[in-house]
Amino acid sequence: MAAIKAEDVRQSVADALQYISYYHPPDYIANLARAYELEESPAARDAIAQILTNSRMCAEGHRPICQDTGIVTVFCKIGMQVRWADDDVLEDLINEGVRRAYMHPDNKLRASIVGDPAGARANTRDNTPAVIHTELVAGDKLDITVAAKGGGSENKAKFVMLNPSDSIVDWVMKAVPTMGAGWCPPGMLGIGIGGTAEKAMVMAKEALMDPIDMQELIARGPSTGIEALRVELYEKVNALGIGAQGLGGLTTVLDVKILDYPTHAASKPVALIPNCAATRHLHFRLDGSGPAVLPVPKLSDWPDISWSAGDNARRVNLDTVTAEDVQSWEPGETILLSGAMLTGRDAAHKRIQEILARGESLPAGVDFNNRFIYYVGPVDAVREEVVGPAGPTTATRMDKFTEMMLAETGLLGMIGKAERGPTAIEAIKRHRSVYLMAVGGAAYLVSKAIREARVVAFEDLGMEAIHEFVVEDMPVTVAVDSNGTSVHQTGPAKWQARIGKIPVKVEM
User: Fold this and answer.
1) CB 6 within 8 A of CB 440
2) In a domain, 372, yes or no
């Protein structure tokens, strides 16, 4: 075998990360399209249509599927007979590949990684370092799987040390509803069983790298206990009725993947990690013949689905909207927003809280009175763009700031991803405010509604700076109305009750 060159590793990692930023795996697209055709919930069907439309747009435009371009995870399987042409450290080669990918001038990806996680949490600015797992195996090849995992889904990871006699199914069925919708379903569940605590977590993550094959498994029938467990969990999780984006519907997961490993007789470690609608991973192999050659998908791999808001959507001018207007909006209603809004995420909210606590005024240009805030950390613009992909971030992270924002800044409403928790819902109800939901996994589609963008405060926070966006017909859904009614509570409850009464559709 020819020796593997350091540059081949660097460039292959960079190319793979660029590739997965804008190409969904074909198996995901095929199975999501199937879910779209079978879906009976109008809200979930609309959300899936946005995700599929966004996916095709990203494939055509070579721009990120999601504004959260992820923390990079790399699995390396190094053949015992591999020869190296250079003395470079593999970890350094991979991190240089990450750096190249995320700083690529034609498709710059969002830098989300912060150093000193327990302290200053300063952004590393190039999305390094990656989380790297290595394994020595037989052979003379280097197999690398790269993944870019968004924080919304990674934050929903679960782990438990069960007793040997405890039911894995029972634990998963209790755990999944606690995850809410911030992990952006429909996606996959990766489960690791056995080993030790850290082994179970790594297996759960690695399981998500496998292609979706649940429908093939169901068609042929399980042949092992693990396969039977996969099918059982797939059916029972979907029967919860959580649905796309947590709005209620037939499909919450497209597959359940499980890896296991022998464990101590007194132990049963179980890890659960979800993968979101921005499923991003790719495997390639290096044999010394050069950098990896990545297959270019055909646009015919995407279904012919084009999202539109429909005739019943309410158009709202953010520059003139009033509290009385907001109080007339109905749960689940589609709204098309036009006008100016401000943005802000965790770091900006924390800084606002500190400023107000000192009795100081907010920076010039940061006036929330009778305005909306959008929870987003956009990708930087390239070429003629006003802003890069700019989908919503998980709204529950801002729940602890909601009362402050509504009581002290005059904020009228909020826009984010997924559900709100009890604290936020109570504040929304108390102040007769509103929470609007944008679809996670449709970041490029959403960005096309943004006509102007500028940073107005906290520029040092990078993607967490406060921006002012001027939007035109930005699609959102009323997720919590001024009375505190949450569609993330009513929708899944309705569809959980309906599932089981729906006739099974037989595909020919």
Assistant:
1) no
2) yes
Supply the CATH number for residue 353's domain: 3.20.130.10
CA angle 44, 55, 129 (to 5 degrees): 110
Q: Go through the chain and tell me how many residues it has.
A: 508
For residues 103 and 97, give the distance between their C-alpha atoms in angstroms, rounded to a whole number: 10
Reduced to 3 states (helix: H, G, I; strand: E, B; else coil), residue 455 is strand
Residue 90 included in any domain: no
**Where does the pLDDT of residue 310 fall: very low under 50, low under 70, confident under 90, or very high at 90 and above?**
confident
What pLDDT, on a 0 to 100 scale, did the predictor assign at position 483? 98
Same domain, 466 and 331: yes
Q: What is the DSSP string of 378-409?
A: PPPP-TT-SSS--PPPBGGGGHHHHHHHHHHS
DSSP code, position 222: -
Residue 259's domain comprises 151-277
Q: Which one-letter amino acid corresponds to residue 508?
A: M
Are residues 349 and 440 both part of a single domain? Answer: yes
CB atoms within 10 A of CB 386: 16
Residue 500 predicted with pLDDT over 90:
no
Provide the mean pLDDT of the chain: 96
332 lies in the same domain as 463? yes
3 state SS of 507: coil
User: Is-cis flag, bond preceding 129, omega within 30?
Assistant: yes
Instruction: State how far the alpha carbon of 349 is from the alpha carbons of 375, 395, 471, in Å.
Output: 10, 12, 22
> Which of 405, 179, 378, 134 minimizes the C-alpha distance to 272?
179
What domain count does the chain have?
2
Helix axes 42-61, 26-38, angle to 10 degrees: 150
Tokens representing 364?
A: 């010039």
Q: How far apart are CA 371 and CA 433, in angstroms?
A: 11
C-beta separation of 407 from 432 below 8 A: no
CA-closest candidate to residue 124, choices 142, 94, 102: 102
> From the CB of residue 99, how many other CB atoms can be counted at a distance below 10 Å?
22
Specify whether 228 is located in the same domain as 370.
no
Judgement on whether residues 321 and 412 belong to the same structural domain of the protein: yes
Same domain for 255 and 326, yes or no, is no
